[in-house]
């Protein structure tokens, strides 16, 4: 069975992003084996000088190297993260820093870096409180994910989003969540 590596970067129990993601993960779970990493409460360290020195000396905690290998071996990646501070929660960036490991998720031929991941498709699920759409200059999560995809060798990126959630009535919010789930389920058919 093919594998999905699911990164849940939602932080609130009542997360609107998680509501959308849960429906899509449930559907994808019918066809894929899913490994979930929940970042709320995870204790990944910010990569600092000591960690970089350890990496230069070939020292990487096996817990992180093993997780990075499973990420690199995944057939698909799903990321659920709300829109925070024009991008996504810092916990997700820190997670990516810990998974961005030389000889595991990417490599180099002394002229350029190239990806080692086998993932053919990435699905990014998000909700935005503001009326900012994917591709807007104020939305920096998608450009980052595309750049990381280039470094790691990830396949195409699909985005499911619901916008202007903080300035909508509860009825409008429910309609937006439902519409995002419908869009996501349509993507899941060919994902």
Automatic annotation (TrEMBL):
Domain Flavodoxin-like fold, first and last residues per copy: 3-180
Database matches in PANTHER family: FMN-DEPENDENT NADH-AZOREDUCTASE 1, FMN-DEPENDENT NADH:QUINONE OXIDOREDUCTASE
Official protein name in the record: NAD(P)H-dependent oxidoreductase
Species for this entry: Candidatus Cryptobacteroides excrementavium
């Amino acid at each position: 069975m093919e594998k999905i590596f699911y990164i849940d970067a939602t932080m609130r129990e009542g997360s609107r992003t998680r509501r959308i993601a849960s429906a899509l993960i449930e559907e994808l779970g019918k066809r894929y084996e899913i490994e979930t990493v929940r970042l709320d409460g995870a204790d990944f360290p910010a990569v600092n000088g000591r960690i970089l020195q350890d990496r230069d000396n070939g020292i990487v905690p096996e817990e992180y190297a093993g997780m990075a290998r499973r990420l690199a071996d995944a057939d698909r990646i799903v990321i659920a993260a709300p829109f925070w501070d024009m991008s996504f929660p810092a916990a997700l960036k820190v997670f990516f820093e810990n998974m961005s490991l030389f000889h595991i998720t990417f490599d180099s031929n002394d002229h350029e870096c190239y990806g080692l991941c086998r993932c053919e498709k990435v699905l990014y699920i998000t909700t935005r409180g503001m009326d900012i759409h994917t591709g807007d200059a104020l939305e920096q999560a998608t450009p980052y994910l595309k750049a990381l995809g280039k470094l790691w060798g990830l396949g195409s990126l699909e985005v499911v989003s619901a916008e202007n959630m903080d300035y909508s009535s509860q009825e409008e919010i429910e309609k937006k969540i439902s519409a995002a789930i419908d869009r996501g389920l349509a993507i899941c058919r060919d994902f």
